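quick one, 618 residues, struct below
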Amino acid sequence: MNVAFSMRITNDQRVKSKFARLTDSDNKAESLNEVTRNQRSGIETNDVYSLDQSSFREIDRTPIIYWFGQEVLQLFIDELALGDEADVMEGLATGDDDLFLRNWWEIDTNKISDEYEWIARSGDGELYYESYEQAALWESDGQKIREHEGSHIRNEEFYWNNGITFRDFAKHFTARLHLSDHLFSNNAHFVYTGDQDRDYRVLGYLNSSLSRFIMNGLNPGLHFKSGDGSRLPIRPNALKETETKELVKSAIRARKERYTYKETKREFDFNLYIEKYPEILFEMDYLDAQTDVIHGRIDEIVFESYGMSEVTKERAYDELPDNLYQYPHLSNAGELVSNEVEVKSEVVPEAEYQEVISQVENNSDEDMRDISEKTGISPYTIAHIRKDNDLYTSDGKTQRTANLLSGFLGCMMGRWELNGLSLINDGILIFDDEFDNSIPELLNKCIDLAFENPETIARRISDDLGKDPVAWLRDSFFRYHHCKEYRRRGQRIPIYWQLESPDGAFSCFLYYHDIDANSLPKLRGQYLDTRIERLENELDTLNSQTNDSDPDKQLLNRKEEVQNSIDDIRHFRETIDEMIDNGVTVNDEDGIWENIKEWDQYKVLETGLPKLKSSYSR
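---
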């Protein structure tokens, strides 16, 4: 950043300072000359700010944030700070997150609220509500964390309270509702108002573009600290008589419902996913649109309640995402499914509507917000157009069906419920039709039980994946889907472990929570030995069938395939024997990452950890 100051000594308190903002200019010297010429000619431009410098003194640390303009700076003079109206603080620092934190799917959920407690951390960056995935070891009131060198139990008297947290690391300031059954951490700073109803109004203000504009100016870096939040000006009763509280509640409901479609979230409801599967991409688009539109409506209320001008609004949106509430819904696409806020609707000529469809199609690889901003059309309309014209990307369709198949694996393992499906009892699924717990057979049964039109669904599954679903589960699921979904700060922490022989003659899934000291002996005795025995019997038959002067070429090829498979599986069995001899199993207390690293040393995973995590080496 290049900064220059030109000063003049004067006792005239009426003289205001003028600042020119040239951050977007490639040629600052020429831009400054142009600004000077305009000022001398009496031409006003939006990149020149005229204000009273004494306003900066009202802000802690006296930052020269001239681009706020006098209207926003006046808030620091006239209004209270958030730190005057609420307690703003940092929370728990464990000193070793890898040791003390676990994603919820790593542990027995019955241990949560007993040995573990939910903890609010940085999260995914969603506004209004975040479904946190981690729990902290808090047995005996967090004794192990307290005793750990480097831990800090900050502001413990505020634990187990409702309130608000805001994200430490973020491009834009991000606040979420905080529930009383959560700890809060050093990267999810806590705001305690003492009034749950008031929390909703404060949350609406904190997420507004006015607040985010101010916070980005107070801390232009990527880390928002509790001290930054304390400095934010707030008008305590500004939103009391508005619909902000109910709008925030609606946004929270939309976020919660959105999480019901994501397997790694606690809200996940696989039976609902099955029900909505044919139109699941539309359902998710619509909920995202709902949150964006509600957020935009809250923006309008906040700007109006705080008396901000159009110039200030424009300055805020120059640095922040657009307000999607202002964009009209085109009724050509259909009526709104739900109407949490009143949205402008209009009908356009058919030719114009077709042009909008083309724009959506040409930008189909972008997210819905970006498409909405480019077209100036409500995200509700974008959601309808994508559904009606099947404008979803191949990646989106693959993800839709990958989630479904992952859910079916969970049903087979007993993680989720599917009426009529008998569960396997050893946590092992085999890619082989000759076994009772055969993945191909169980997958067909799941589709038959879950859908009234299984043949249609089966075709959609194959179309989405671009191949047979069993082949996709075997070749792509573990590496390209499951390990990407189940992760923590780059660590791969899957719960369905795919073990495979070196050349792929044998492949299976083990359910992490069912692995015990008997799992590998079972795999060896009930599956590997049986598979090798069957192949040896087939090889004996093939030997007798090809024991003449002119053997059938197809039989010879099959004989070679069988021999190669036997050799491959025997090699794999030797590795499993080594693991059994070494007492390899899993220790729940160590977490998935530490356990899977030990198994990976034997190179039994379908895709080894070095390929799943480039920075990892055995």
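The radius of gyration is 30 Å.
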